[in-house]
Every structure is written in structure tokens, then in C-alpha cells.
Amino acid sequence: MAGWPADWWRRIGDVRYHERCMSEATAAVRSMTPRLERVRARLGEERLDALVLLNAENRRYVTGFTGSAGIAVVLPERSHLIVDFRYVEQAREEAPEFSPVRVSNLLEGLAAFLREAGARRVGFEAETVTVAQLRRLRELAADVELVPLQGLDRMRWRKDPQEIARISRAAQIAAAAFVEILPLVRPGVVERDLALELEYRMRRLGADGAAFDAIVASGPRSALPHGRASGRAIGPGDLVTVDWGAVVQGYHSDSTRTLVVGRASGEQRQLYRLVREAQEAALAGLRPGMTGKEADALARQRIAAAGYGDHFGHGLGHGVGLAVHEGPTLSPREEAVLEPEVVVTVEPGIYLPGWGGVRVEDLVVLREGGAEVFPGAPQELLEV
Ligand code: ZN
Ligand code: ZN
Question: What is the pLDDT of residues 324-350, one digit of tens each?
């Protein structure tokens, strides 16, 4: 493919990176005990008799259970997984450190269980439990004090080697699928068809699925930061923003490339260069110990200095893991300090209504020495 760095295929196919990740993963502790102990520590801190996890990602993170419904209950001495009949066997298999409790209705079953366990003060995830669920639970367990806990998902921010290996694999598959569909990007092709093709290729390459509905936004639509792939046919000279990701064993990838159909105009080229420079500044400057706000500024300053500050309306990045959007965020409002082994996106963008937009997004893991970029598609402006 013309215009491509000759070493790209070698880089993306370089299995050494993945081998290293996978061997680190093998050495990682497989047991859920350390995660369970961290949740248990919250019991003491908050003087709770029990803590219930309803959030799907938190539940999976702590128990290993991948089913779509269930409530994990952590008590000081034991832990249980409340499930309905569909999931009893699966819970036994995937979450050996949790005793399955079979119920016919999850909330009713939870209330009965808490009553039986004698739990008086019970913590729950404030960001997950709905008003309706809380109201119902209060009716069912009137004598239980329900304590809202915030930020429980922070336990998922730092990734272990196994998690990093899965994200890396997802990123590798996503990049390879993107390269496969590039020859299909030409005038007349419909955005939705490209998105579908991308998803199909990712699954063929071994992904469990797409991380989210791929964004393919062409021409003036590329000015929409989250423009869903539409029925629009791509035209000559269009900027096309593609934002996509894969899922591997529950872990997501998330990346964006912007390409031009045909030869790029001077303005397109200039804007692309600015966005890439902003991204490079962030990649070079990211360090554990800085706040999400400081990280965001690394790229934002560059874009603002060039006069496009008002056209970079979103944060620089976000955490990625069991959820495609999780903490910490890199944004002007994020006060949280970035720790080593957090996985975040670095995705500056400039959007000019009526003209188009440019965004480049890569995934990194923060190491002591700085940001380590996951394998991704070529970063130069692609003219296809
Ligand atoms: Zn994205
Ligand atoms: Zn993103």
C-alpha cells in the first residue's frame, strides 16, 4: 500500500510485545483474593456488615463471573454471588471464591439474604444502583441501613499484567482489521458499510466483539466527535474519522484514525499535523504522579496556542478496561492523580462545523518512565 511506512506490517505483527505481555500475565496471580481483600478493606473503613456489587464491571472484576445478571455480596468472613437459575453453574465455575445463592428475583433474594446474614449496615455503589432499585430495596429490607459508596470502580483503574495483555490483544486485532478495510475506503462507499466491515474483520481476527458501534464520520460529519456511522456515501476529498475498538476476554480497545479520500488539501494536512503534534506532546509528557488535568493540558495548550482551543471540546482521554469508558479521565476537571499501570486513551481532536474534524486516538499504559503506546494503526495522515 503506497505511502505506508514499510516497517508498519512488521511492527503490528511483532509478537514479541504480546509475548512479553502474555508471559507477564501468566505470572500474574490468577486468584481473585487480592481484589476481594481490597473490597473487604472498605467494609472496615466504612464500618459495614456487607457490601453489594451490582455494577457489571465491578462484579466481574471482583468475582470473575462473566454473566449478565447477579449481585455479589461481600461479608467480613465470606462472599456470595446471588444469581438466578440460569447462572448457578456458571457462577460456580467462574467465581469459585463466591458461594452461589440461587434466587428467583435478585433484589428480593438480596433482601432475604441480608436479613438472614444479620447485616445491618450495607454499602452499595452510588453510581450504579437506580432510584427505583434503592426504593425497592428499602421496602424489602426496611431494617437495613443502605450506605451509598462512591468511586468503588477506582479499584479497577490500575491494571495487572493479564488485563494489560488482553487490552493489548484487543488493540492489535483492531489495528489489523482497520488496515484490512483501508482498500475499501473510496468515493461512493457508505459509512455504515465500512463500520460493519470493520466489525466483521475484528471478529474474524479473534475479537469477541466490537467494543462499541464504530464511528465512521465522513466529510462535514467528521466534525461530529461521536458521529454514528450513517447512510452517507463517502465523497472525494472527504476527511473520514473512524473510531473503533475490539473486545478480548472482557477487555476493550479504543482508537481513532482520520484519513483523507484522495489527496489531502493544505488545510486538512495542517490541521492533522497540529492534532498529531498535540498528541505527541501528551505521549511524551505523560507521567504517573501528574493529575488528569495536567495530562490534559499537555495537548490542550498546543491546540489552544494555535487558536483552536474552542474546537477541542472534549477531554484528552479516559481510562479503558472492562468498560470502554472508565476512570481516570484526562480532562480539565480531573483532579485524580494518575498512577502507574493505568490504561488511558490519548485523543486530541479539532472539529470545525461545516468543514470537518480530525481526531487521533491511541491507547497507552502508564509506566514509571512514561507512556507506553499499545500497538495501533499507522499514525500518519492516510490518503486512500
Ligand atoms: Zn474512541
Ligand atoms: Zn476514547
Answer: 999 999 999 999 999 999 999 999 999
Q: Which residues pair with 146 in a beta bridge?
A: 122
- Partner residues linked to 351 by β-bridges: 357
State the ligand closest to the CA atom of 314: 2
What is the per-residue DSSP string for 20-82?
HHHHHHHHS---SHHHHHHHHHHHHHTT-SEEEE-SHHHHHHHH----SS-EEEE-SS-EEEE
Give me 283's grid cell.
505521549
Q: Are strands 99-102 and 79-83 parallel, antiparallel or unpaired?
A: parallel
What's the rounded Cα separation, in Å, for the pair 95 and 73?
A: 12
Q: What angle do CA 314, 316, 317 make, to 5 degrees?
A: 105
Collapsing DSSP to helix, strand or coil, 13 comes out as helix
Task: From 188, 172, 168, select the one nearest 180 (Cα to Cα).
Answer: 172
Q: In this predicted model, which residue has the larger pLDDT, 312 or 225?
A: 312
pTM over 0.85: yes
List Cα–Cα distances, 60 to 34, 68, 82, in angstroms. Answer: 14, 9, 13
- CA 254 to ligand 1 centroid distance, Å: 5
98 CA distance to ligand 1 middle (Å): 35
Least confident of 2-16, 37-51, 172-186, 349-363: 2-16
Ligand having the closest approach to the CA of 255: 1
